[in-house]
UniProtKB/TrEMBL annotation:
Gene3D superfamilies: Hypothetical protein (hspc210) (3.30.2280.10). GO terms for molecular function: kinase regulator activity; protein kinase A binding. Belongs to the GSKIP family. Residues 1-24 are annotated as: Disordered. This is GSKIP protein. It comes from Alca torda (Razorbill). GO terms for biological process: regulation of canonical Wnt signaling pathway. Residues 34-134 form the GSKIP domain. Signal peptide: none annotated.
Length: 140
């Protein structure tokens, strides 16, 4: 069990350079801040899981972020988010296990779909409700 605190030295994004327009394009526009990406992932699917949040204890950087998720079945996972996608790195919050060789998923939807039947059901029902609403809208 390895725990690492987020060290401000490792977080050049917290220096406020983003706000300064002179530095806005310093590293190019294709570089993503994975913490922001992770927040977006959480906001997208939070309704379909029991709990989900970006880890505050594991190291975060421009190229990696960690997300804790608890499925509706009460299983806990720590997910790693990189340019390669998302993968399970531990079976508990705020941990990584280097021995775990889990596949990357392109989307959080496919990852959760593979882990949680309850997620699949809740997400599918939400999709159906949205489609019904769109159908009613187009009929009026």
């Amino acid at each position: 069990r390895m725990e690492t605190d987020c060290n401000p030295v490792e977080l050049p994004n917290n220096t406020g350079f983003e706000e300064d327009s002179d530095y806005g394009d310093f590293e190019g526009t294709d570089v993503k801040d994975m913490r922001l990406e992770a927040e977006a992932v959480v906001n997208d699917v939070l309704f379909a899981v029991s709990n989900m949040f970006v880890s505050k204890t594991l190291p975060c950087a421009e190229d990696v972020a960690y997300i804790n998720v608890e499925t509706r079945e009460r299983n806990r996972y720590c997910l790693e988010l990189t340019e390669a996608g998302l993968r399970v790195v531990a079976y508990d919050f705020d941990q990584t296990d280097d021995r775990l060789q889990t596949p990357y998923h392109e989307t959080v939807y496919s990852l959760l779909d593979s882990l949680s039947p309850a997620y699949r059901e809740v997400f599918g029902n939400a999709l159906l409700q949205r489609l019904e609403a769109l159908k009613k809208e187009s009929q009026s």
